[in-house]
Amino acid sequence: MTTETETEPNDLRNLIEGARVVLWDFDGPVCRLFAGHSAERVARDLVDWLEGRGLHGLLDEPARESLDPHVVLRAVDRRHPGSDLVAELEERLTQEELKAAASARPTPYADPLVRTWTAVGARLAITTNNSPRVVKEYLTSRGLLPCFAPHLYGRTQELSYLKPHPHCVQRALNAMGAAPSTALMIGDTPSDFLAARAAGVPFLGYARNERKTKVLEEAGAEMIVGSLEPVLKAVREAGQA
Fold it and tell me: Which Pfam families does the UniProt entry name for this protein (predicted)?
């Protein structure tokens, strides 16, 4: 495994130089969406809402105890795929994500990296399990929307297509007319890595702590950085070459 402390600058630069299209996961590499609006609380609120409607039985114990709202959403969708209940639950999650966007914290070096990669000619897209409405609102607030638009591929009503399914990655590639080998995906979870691998897209892991690094390594990710700073440096150097 190649982690930040082991990564050779040339390895990173080679990965970057081959990328004409860069696919970004949103919550993690671009920002910490729930930095000021707890994802754990959102998950509990979704569970409480279901219980208040007498639907406690739709969730198994792992889903009830989950601190991830997407786990709750998927659990209900598995029992009632495409139902009005799932649509209502998904909208509730979207509203919570929109609240979170107002206090989201930019990932260090993400903003200048996005601008620099765009300036040197790469095309960027978002491929996320979050709502594209939330992505648009956050990017607009940072002045970054022109770097990505219209290529924002996020959660739809078809929840079975959430990563690790490669659907959003393939949507981006198809819309941008890009071969998988000419793209690069940046993500911070095993589901990001697995989606990229299924689509044949090279992957760069971003892990802001040792726990994130470990789970990416266990999933099979081979190149991981603990900061976007060396990525920004490599993009700048590649652009000057």
Answer: Hydrolase
**CA–CA gap between residue 17 and residue 43 (Å, rounded):** 40
Is the pTM higher than 0.90?
yes
Q: Which DSSP category does 4 fall into?
A: T
- Report which residue type is found at 208: R
Give the residue from 168, 197, 193, 185 showing the smallest Cα distance to 231.
185
SS (H, E, C) 163-193: CCCCHHHHHHHHHHCCCHHHEEEEECCHHHH
pLDDT tens digits for 68-82? 999 999 999 999 998
Q: What angle do CA 61, 210, 99 make, to 5 degrees?
A: 60
pLDDT one-digit tens code per residue, 174-231: 999 999 999 999 999 999 999 999 999 999 999 999 999 999 999 999 999 999 999 9
The C-alpha atoms of residue 126 and residue 41 are separated, in whole angstroms, by: 25
Q: What are the backbone angles phi and psi of residue 178, rounded to the nearest 5°?
A: -110, 135
Angle between the 39-52 and 84-101 helix axes, to the nearest 10 degrees?
150
